Automatic annotation (TrEMBL):
Organism encoding this protein: Aegilops tauschii subsp. strangulata
GO biological process, one term: protein folding
Record protein name field: Thioredoxin domain-containing protein
GO MF assignments: protein disulfide isomerase activity
One term under GO cellular component: membrane
Length: 417
Protein backbone atom coordinates (compact mmCIF):
# COMPACT_ATOMS: atom_id res chain seq x y z
CA UNK A 1 0.00 0.00 0.00
CA UNK A 2 1.45 3.44 -0.91
CA UNK A 3 2.57 5.62 2.00
CA UNK A 4 0.10 8.38 1.07
CA UNK A 5 -2.88 5.96 1.35
CA UNK A 6 -1.72 4.86 4.79
CA UNK A 7 -1.60 8.48 5.95
CA UNK A 8 -5.16 9.08 4.77
CA UNK A 9 -6.50 6.04 6.58
CA UNK A 10 -4.82 7.15 9.79
CA UNK A 11 -6.04 10.73 9.49
CA UNK A 12 -9.67 9.86 8.68
CA UNK A 13 -10.72 8.92 12.27
CA UNK A 14 -8.99 12.03 13.59
CA UNK A 15 -10.82 14.18 11.02
CA UNK A 16 -14.20 12.67 11.95
CA UNK A 17 -13.51 13.20 15.67
CA UNK A 18 -12.54 16.81 15.08
CA UNK A 19 -15.68 17.40 13.03
CA UNK A 20 -17.97 15.94 15.69
CA UNK A 21 -16.23 17.95 18.40
CA UNK A 22 -16.62 21.17 16.41
CA UNK A 23 -20.34 20.52 15.94
CA UNK A 24 -20.84 19.92 19.65
CA UNK A 25 -18.96 23.05 20.59
CA UNK A 26 -20.51 25.39 18.04
CA UNK A 27 -24.03 24.40 17.13
CA UNK A 28 -24.85 21.01 18.61
CA UNK A 29 -24.95 21.79 22.33
CA UNK A 30 -28.29 22.02 24.14
CA UNK A 31 -29.62 25.52 24.83
CA UNK A 32 -28.92 26.89 28.28
CA UNK A 33 -31.62 26.12 30.79
CA UNK A 34 -33.61 29.01 32.23
CA UNK A 35 -32.43 29.93 35.70
CA UNK A 36 -35.06 31.07 38.18
CA UNK A 37 -33.70 34.09 40.10
CA UNK A 38 -33.09 33.26 43.74
CA UNK A 39 -33.85 36.76 44.96
CA UNK A 40 -37.34 36.74 43.44
CA UNK A 41 -36.64 39.73 41.22
CA UNK A 42 -38.47 40.47 37.96
CA UNK A 43 -36.88 38.67 34.99
CA UNK A 44 -36.30 40.30 31.61
CA UNK A 45 -37.21 37.90 28.81
CA UNK A 46 -36.63 38.09 25.06
CA UNK A 47 -37.17 35.92 22.00
CA UNK A 48 -34.09 33.89 22.88
CA UNK A 49 -35.10 32.73 26.37
CA UNK A 50 -38.89 33.17 26.53
CA UNK A 51 -39.89 29.63 25.57
CA UNK A 52 -37.23 28.19 27.89
CA UNK A 53 -38.73 30.20 30.76
CA UNK A 54 -42.26 29.02 29.94
CA UNK A 55 -41.05 25.42 29.87
CA UNK A 56 -39.04 25.71 33.09
CA UNK A 57 -41.53 27.55 35.32
CA UNK A 58 -44.90 26.12 36.39
CA UNK A 59 -46.43 29.55 36.92
CA UNK A 60 -44.98 32.48 34.99
CA UNK A 61 -46.59 35.93 35.17
CA UNK A 62 -45.54 38.06 32.19
CA UNK A 63 -45.87 41.78 31.62
CA UNK A 64 -45.84 42.55 27.89
CA UNK A 65 -44.92 46.24 27.88
CA UNK A 66 -43.64 49.09 25.74
CA UNK A 67 -40.97 51.59 26.87
CA UNK A 68 -43.13 54.61 25.95
CA UNK A 69 -46.28 53.39 27.75
CA UNK A 70 -47.21 55.49 30.80
CA UNK A 71 -49.39 52.76 32.33
CA UNK A 72 -46.47 50.35 31.99
CA UNK A 73 -44.17 52.74 33.83
CA UNK A 74 -46.66 53.04 36.70
CA UNK A 75 -47.08 49.26 36.83
CA UNK A 76 -43.35 48.54 36.99
CA UNK A 77 -42.77 49.40 40.70
CA UNK A 78 -45.88 47.39 41.64
CA UNK A 79 -44.41 44.32 39.94
CA UNK A 80 -41.05 44.91 41.60
CA UNK A 81 -42.80 44.93 44.97
CA UNK A 82 -44.97 41.89 44.27
CA UNK A 83 -42.33 39.68 42.64
CA UNK A 84 -40.38 38.60 45.79
CA UNK A 85 -43.64 37.84 47.60
CA UNK A 86 -44.98 35.77 44.71
CA UNK A 87 -41.73 33.83 44.35
CA UNK A 88 -41.82 32.94 48.05
CA UNK A 89 -45.31 31.40 48.03
CA UNK A 90 -45.83 27.69 48.64
CA UNK A 91 -46.77 27.62 44.94
CA UNK A 92 -44.13 30.01 43.54
CA UNK A 93 -44.93 32.45 40.74
CA UNK A 94 -42.10 34.00 38.72
CA UNK A 95 -42.68 37.53 37.42
CA UNK A 96 -41.18 38.47 34.05
CA UNK A 97 -41.21 41.34 31.55
CA UNK A 98 -41.08 41.37 27.77
CA UNK A 99 -40.48 44.46 25.66
CA UNK A 100 -43.25 43.64 23.20
CA UNK A 101 -42.47 46.73 21.14
CA UNK A 102 -39.02 45.29 20.42
CA UNK A 103 -39.79 41.57 20.31
CA UNK A 104 -42.60 41.60 17.78
CA UNK A 105 -42.63 37.82 17.24
CA UNK A 106 -43.67 37.27 20.87
CA UNK A 107 -46.14 40.13 20.59
CA UNK A 108 -47.76 38.51 17.55
CA UNK A 109 -47.68 34.95 18.91
CA UNK A 110 -49.55 35.85 22.09
CA UNK A 111 -51.94 38.35 20.55
CA UNK A 112 -50.70 41.40 22.43
CA UNK A 113 -52.64 44.37 21.07
CA UNK A 114 -52.30 46.86 23.92
CA UNK A 115 -49.94 47.84 26.71
CA UNK A 116 -49.51 46.62 29.28
CA UNK A 117 -50.89 43.14 28.61
CA UNK A 118 -50.51 40.78 31.56
CA UNK A 119 -50.61 37.00 31.17
CA UNK A 120 -50.32 34.10 33.59
CA UNK A 121 -48.72 31.01 32.06
CA UNK A 122 -50.06 27.98 33.93
CA UNK A 123 -47.77 25.09 32.93
CA UNK A 124 -47.31 26.77 29.56
CA UNK A 125 -50.95 27.71 28.98
CA UNK A 126 -51.45 31.51 28.84
CA UNK A 127 -54.46 33.33 30.32
CA UNK A 128 -54.82 37.10 30.25
CA UNK A 129 -54.94 38.71 33.68
CA UNK A 130 -57.33 41.66 34.05
CA UNK A 131 -57.44 42.04 37.84
CA UNK A 132 -55.99 44.67 40.13
CA UNK A 133 -52.47 45.94 39.41
CA UNK A 134 -51.73 47.15 42.92
CA UNK A 135 -48.99 45.02 44.47
CA UNK A 136 -50.97 43.71 47.45
CA UNK A 137 -54.13 42.89 45.51
CA UNK A 138 -52.07 41.49 42.64
CA UNK A 139 -50.46 39.00 45.03
CA UNK A 140 -53.87 38.01 46.46
CA UNK A 141 -55.39 37.53 43.02
CA UNK A 142 -52.52 35.50 41.58
CA UNK A 143 -52.24 33.36 44.69
CA UNK A 144 -55.90 32.54 44.24
CA UNK A 145 -55.50 31.70 40.54
CA UNK A 146 -52.71 29.15 41.10
CA UNK A 147 -54.51 27.41 43.97
CA UNK A 148 -56.56 24.23 43.39
CA UNK A 149 -60.21 24.78 42.45
CA UNK A 150 -61.17 22.93 45.63
CA UNK A 151 -58.71 22.17 48.44
CA UNK A 152 -59.22 18.98 50.46
CA UNK A 153 -58.59 19.55 54.18
CA UNK A 154 -58.05 16.54 56.45
CA UNK A 155 -57.50 17.99 59.91
CA UNK A 156 -58.27 20.94 62.16
CA UNK A 157 -54.74 22.19 61.57
CA UNK A 158 -55.21 22.04 57.79
CA UNK A 159 -58.46 23.99 58.05
CA UNK A 160 -56.90 26.70 60.20
CA UNK A 161 -53.92 26.93 57.83
CA UNK A 162 -56.23 27.21 54.80
CA UNK A 163 -58.19 30.07 56.36
CA UNK A 164 -55.04 31.88 57.44
CA UNK A 165 -53.29 31.57 54.08
CA UNK A 166 -56.40 32.65 52.16
CA UNK A 167 -56.19 36.08 53.76
CA UNK A 168 -59.00 38.63 53.55
CA UNK A 169 -59.09 39.43 49.85
CA UNK A 170 -61.71 36.86 48.85
CA UNK A 171 -64.67 35.04 50.46
CA UNK A 172 -64.05 31.44 51.58
CA UNK A 173 -66.28 28.37 51.38
CA UNK A 174 -65.57 25.33 53.55
CA UNK A 175 -67.71 22.25 52.96
CA UNK A 176 -67.78 20.31 56.22
CA UNK A 177 -68.76 16.76 55.32
CA UNK A 178 -69.58 17.96 51.79
CA UNK A 179 -68.47 15.73 48.94
CA UNK A 180 -65.87 17.40 46.75
CA UNK A 181 -67.86 16.57 43.61
CA UNK A 182 -70.78 18.67 44.91
CA UNK A 183 -68.82 21.92 44.75
CA UNK A 184 -66.10 21.15 42.17
CA UNK A 185 -68.13 22.83 39.40
CA UNK A 186 -68.51 26.03 41.42
CA UNK A 187 -64.90 25.97 42.55
CA UNK A 188 -63.88 26.16 38.89
CA UNK A 189 -66.60 28.63 37.87
CA UNK A 190 -65.91 31.10 40.68
CA UNK A 191 -62.18 30.48 40.96
CA UNK A 192 -61.34 34.15 40.43
CA UNK A 193 -63.76 35.27 43.14
CA UNK A 194 -63.51 32.89 46.11
CA UNK A 195 -61.63 30.08 47.85
CA UNK A 196 -63.28 26.64 47.99
CA UNK A 197 -62.48 23.65 50.15
CA UNK A 198 -63.94 20.49 51.67
CA UNK A 199 -63.14 19.29 55.19
CA UNK A 200 -63.00 15.55 55.75
CA UNK A 201 -61.89 15.27 59.37
CA UNK A 202 -62.61 17.93 61.98
CA UNK A 203 -63.42 18.21 65.66
CA UNK A 204 -66.56 19.32 67.46
CA UNK A 205 -64.56 22.29 68.71
CA UNK A 206 -64.21 23.47 65.14
CA UNK A 207 -67.94 23.00 64.59
CA UNK A 208 -68.49 25.42 67.46
CA UNK A 209 -66.00 27.90 65.99
CA UNK A 210 -67.86 27.98 62.68
CA UNK A 211 -71.28 27.80 64.30
CA UNK A 212 -72.85 24.72 62.67
CA UNK A 213 -74.37 21.71 64.40
CA UNK A 214 -74.87 19.13 61.66
CA UNK A 215 -73.34 17.91 58.40
CA UNK A 216 -73.15 18.32 55.52
CA UNK A 217 -72.76 22.07 55.96
CA UNK A 218 -71.19 24.66 53.68
CA UNK A 219 -69.77 27.53 55.70
CA UNK A 220 -69.24 30.87 53.99
CA UNK A 221 -66.68 33.30 55.43
CA UNK A 222 -66.16 36.86 54.29
CA UNK A 223 -63.22 37.98 56.45
CA UNK A 224 -63.00 41.41 54.84
CA UNK A 225 -66.46 42.25 56.25
CA UNK A 226 -66.33 39.90 59.26
CA UNK A 227 -69.37 37.93 58.04
CA UNK A 228 -70.20 34.24 58.26
CA UNK A 229 -73.16 32.10 57.20
CA UNK A 230 -74.07 28.41 56.92
CA UNK A 231 -75.87 26.45 54.20
CA UNK A 232 -77.31 23.05 55.07
CA UNK A 233 -78.70 22.23 51.66
CA UNK A 234 -80.22 21.04 49.52
CA UNK A 235 -77.03 20.61 47.50
CA UNK A 236 -78.89 20.02 44.25
CA UNK A 237 -80.50 22.31 41.69
CA UNK A 238 -80.00 26.05 41.95
CA UNK A 239 -80.07 26.27 45.75
CA UNK A 240 -76.34 25.72 46.23
CA UNK A 241 -75.24 28.12 43.50
CA UNK A 242 -77.69 30.78 44.72
CA UNK A 243 -76.10 30.59 48.17
CA UNK A 244 -72.59 30.81 46.72
CA UNK A 245 -73.40 33.76 44.45
CA UNK A 246 -75.13 35.67 47.22
CA UNK A 247 -72.27 35.03 49.62
CA UNK A 248 -69.73 36.57 47.25
CA UNK A 249 -71.05 39.96 48.39
CA UNK A 250 -71.33 41.17 51.98
CA UNK A 251 -74.81 41.28 53.50
CA UNK A 252 -74.78 45.06 53.19
CA UNK A 253 -72.58 46.36 50.41
CA UNK A 254 -70.61 49.58 50.90
CA UNK A 255 -70.82 51.25 47.50
CA UNK A 256 -67.42 52.13 46.11
CA UNK A 257 -65.51 51.68 42.86
CA UNK A 258 -64.58 48.10 43.72
CA UNK A 259 -68.04 46.91 44.79
CA UNK A 260 -69.76 48.60 41.82
CA UNK A 261 -67.73 46.26 39.59
CA UNK A 262 -68.74 43.28 41.73
CA UNK A 263 -72.41 44.22 41.48
CA UNK A 264 -72.31 43.96 37.70
CA UNK A 265 -72.01 40.17 38.01
CA UNK A 266 -75.11 39.94 40.23
CA UNK A 267 -78.55 40.00 38.61
CA UNK A 268 -80.41 41.28 41.70
CA UNK A 269 -81.62 44.84 42.17
CA UNK A 270 -80.11 46.96 44.93
CA UNK A 271 -82.00 48.46 47.86
CA UNK A 272 -79.77 51.49 48.30
CA UNK A 273 -79.59 53.67 51.40
CA UNK A 274 -78.23 57.12 50.59
CA UNK A 275 -76.65 58.61 53.71
CA UNK A 276 -74.94 61.87 54.48
CA UNK A 277 -71.94 60.14 56.05
CA UNK A 278 -71.76 56.34 56.19
CA UNK A 279 -69.29 56.39 59.08
CA UNK A 280 -71.25 58.36 61.69
CA UNK A 281 -72.99 56.66 64.61
CA UNK A 282 -76.54 57.07 63.27
CA UNK A 283 -75.60 55.60 59.91
CA UNK A 284 -73.83 52.66 61.54
CA UNK A 285 -77.01 51.78 63.43
CA UNK A 286 -79.03 52.00 60.22
CA UNK A 287 -76.56 49.74 58.40
CA UNK A 288 -77.06 47.08 61.09
CA UNK A 289 -80.82 47.23 60.50
CA UNK A 290 -80.23 46.92 56.75
CA UNK A 291 -78.19 43.79 57.43
CA UNK A 292 -81.16 42.22 59.20
CA UNK A 293 -83.40 43.12 56.25
CA UNK A 294 -80.87 41.62 53.84
CA UNK A 295 -80.86 38.38 55.81
CA UNK A 296 -84.62 38.06 55.25
CA UNK A 297 -84.66 39.21 51.59
CA UNK A 298 -82.05 37.25 49.69
CA UNK A 299 -83.54 38.16 46.32
CA UNK A 300 -82.29 41.74 46.77
CA UNK A 301 -78.90 43.27 47.39
CA UNK A 302 -78.75 45.83 50.21
CA UNK A 303 -76.20 48.59 49.90
CA UNK A 304 -75.35 52.00 51.29
CA UNK A 305 -73.36 55.03 50.20
CA UNK A 306 -72.45 58.30 51.89
CA UNK A 307 -72.60 61.66 50.16
CA UNK A 308 -69.45 62.63 52.03
CA UNK A 309 -67.74 59.46 50.79
CA UNK A 310 -68.80 59.52 47.12
CA UNK A 311 -70.78 62.61 46.22
CA UNK A 312 -70.54 62.09 42.46
CA UNK A 313 -72.22 58.69 42.74
CA UNK A 314 -75.08 59.96 44.91
CA UNK A 315 -75.99 62.99 42.76
CA UNK A 316 -78.51 61.19 40.50
CA UNK A 317 -80.37 59.87 43.56
CA UNK A 318 -80.12 62.92 45.76
CA UNK A 319 -80.99 66.56 45.15
CA UNK A 320 -78.98 68.41 47.76
CA UNK A 321 -81.42 71.36 47.69
CA UNK A 322 -84.73 69.55 48.19
CA UNK A 323 -84.00 65.97 49.22
CA UNK A 324 -83.48 64.88 52.81
CA UNK A 325 -81.30 62.07 54.07
CA UNK A 326 -81.19 59.22 54.78
CA UNK A 327 -83.37 57.93 51.93
CA UNK A 328 -84.08 54.59 50.26
CA UNK A 329 -84.29 53.74 46.55
CA UNK A 330 -84.29 50.50 44.56
CA UNK A 331 -81.60 50.74 41.87
CA UNK A 332 -81.27 48.51 38.79
CA UNK A 333 -77.47 49.12 38.67
CA UNK A 334 -77.85 51.06 35.46
CA UNK A 335 -79.86 54.20 34.61
CA UNK A 336 -83.12 53.43 36.41
CA UNK A 337 -84.31 53.39 40.00
CA UNK A 338 -87.59 53.30 41.93
CA UNK A 339 -88.86 55.21 44.94
CA UNK A 340 -91.84 54.57 47.20
CA UNK A 341 -93.76 57.81 47.46
CA UNK A 342 -93.95 58.98 51.05
CA UNK A 343 -91.49 56.33 52.28
CA UNK A 344 -88.22 57.19 50.55
CA UNK A 345 -87.13 59.44 53.44
CA UNK A 346 -86.29 57.59 56.64
CA UNK A 347 -87.57 59.60 59.58
CA UNK A 348 -86.08 59.49 63.04
CA UNK A 349 -87.41 56.65 65.13
CA UNK A 350 -88.07 53.02 64.22
CA UNK A 351 -85.99 52.52 61.07
CA UNK A 352 -86.71 48.78 61.07
CA UNK A 353 -90.46 49.29 60.63
CA UNK A 354 -89.93 51.97 57.98
CA UNK A 355 -87.66 49.67 55.96
CA UNK A 356 -90.23 46.85 56.24
CA UNK A 357 -92.99 49.14 54.93
CA UNK A 358 -90.72 50.31 52.11
CA UNK A 359 -90.02 46.72 51.02
CA UNK A 360 -93.70 45.79 51.28
CA UNK A 361 -94.69 48.71 49.05
CA UNK A 362 -91.93 47.91 46.58
CA UNK A 363 -93.03 44.29 46.25
CA UNK A 364 -96.61 45.42 45.80
CA UNK A 365 -95.54 47.66 42.93
CA UNK A 366 -96.42 50.93 44.64
CA UNK A 367 -93.37 52.71 43.29
CA UNK A 368 -92.46 55.61 41.05
CA UNK A 369 -89.93 54.69 38.37
CA UNK A 370 -87.27 57.25 37.53
CA UNK A 371 -84.45 57.52 35.01
CA UNK A 372 -81.22 59.42 35.38
CA UNK A 373 -80.93 62.50 33.23
CA UNK A 374 -77.39 61.42 32.51
CA UNK A 375 -75.45 58.21 32.89
CA UNK A 376 -73.08 57.64 35.78
CA UNK A 377 -69.59 58.63 34.66
CA UNK A 378 -68.26 56.15 37.19
CA UNK A 379 -70.31 53.33 35.67
CA UNK A 380 -69.43 54.20 32.11
CA UNK A 381 -66.46 51.98 31.41
CA UNK A 382 -63.02 53.51 31.07
CA UNK A 383 -62.75 52.02 27.59
CA UNK A 384 -66.00 53.70 26.60
CA UNK A 385 -64.68 57.05 27.80
CA UNK A 386 -61.54 56.56 25.73
CA UNK A 387 -63.68 55.75 22.67
CA UNK A 388 -65.81 58.83 23.26
CA UNK A 389 -62.73 61.06 23.52
CA UNK A 390 -61.29 59.44 20.41
CA UNK A 391 -64.48 60.11 18.44
CA UNK A 392 -64.45 63.76 19.52
CA UNK A 393 -60.80 64.07 18.49
CA UNK A 394 -61.50 62.48 15.09
CA UNK A 395 -64.44 64.84 14.56
CA UNK A 396 -62.28 67.87 15.36
CA UNK A 397 -59.58 66.71 12.91
CA UNK A 398 -62.14 66.09 10.17
CA UNK A 399 -63.64 69.54 10.70
CA UNK A 400 -60.19 71.09 10.58
CA UNK A 401 -59.20 69.44 7.31
CA UNK A 402 -62.63 70.10 5.86
CA UNK A 403 -62.11 73.80 6.54
CA UNK A 404 -58.62 73.64 5.06
CA UNK A 405 -60.03 72.04 1.93
CA UNK A 406 -62.59 74.79 1.51
CA UNK A 407 -59.90 77.44 1.86
CA UNK A 408 -57.68 75.66 -0.67
CA UNK A 409 -60.51 75.44 -3.22
CA UNK A 410 -61.65 79.06 -2.99
CA UNK A 411 -58.65 80.64 -4.83
CA UNK A 412 -58.89 78.03 -7.58
CA UNK A 413 -62.51 78.87 -8.35
CA UNK A 414 -61.72 82.59 -8.33
CA UNK A 415 -58.86 82.09 -10.76
CA UNK A 416 -61.06 80.10 -13.13
CA UNK A 417 -63.62 82.87 -13.17
Amino acid sequence: MPPMAVDKQRLLPLFVLALVTACLVSGGEEPARFQIPRDGSVVELDEGNFEAAVAAVDFLFVDFHAPWCGHCKRLSPQLDEAAPVLSGLSTPIVVAKVNAEKYKKLRSKYGVDGFPTLMLFDHGVPTEYTGSRKAGQLVESLRKLVAPDVSVLKSDAAIKSFVQEAGVGFPLFIGFGVDESSIAEYGARYKKKAWFSTAKDFSEDLMAVYDFDKIPALVSLNPKYNEQSVFYGPFEGTFLEDFIRQSLLPMTVPINAETVKMLKDDDRKVVLAVLQDDSDETSMRLIKILRSAANANHDLVFGYVGVNQWEEFTEPFHDSKSSQLPKLVVWDKDEKYEVVEGLEKLEEGDHGSQISRFLEAYRAGRTIKKTFGRRFPTLLGVNALYILLLLVAVLVVLMFFSGQGEEDRQPTRAHQE
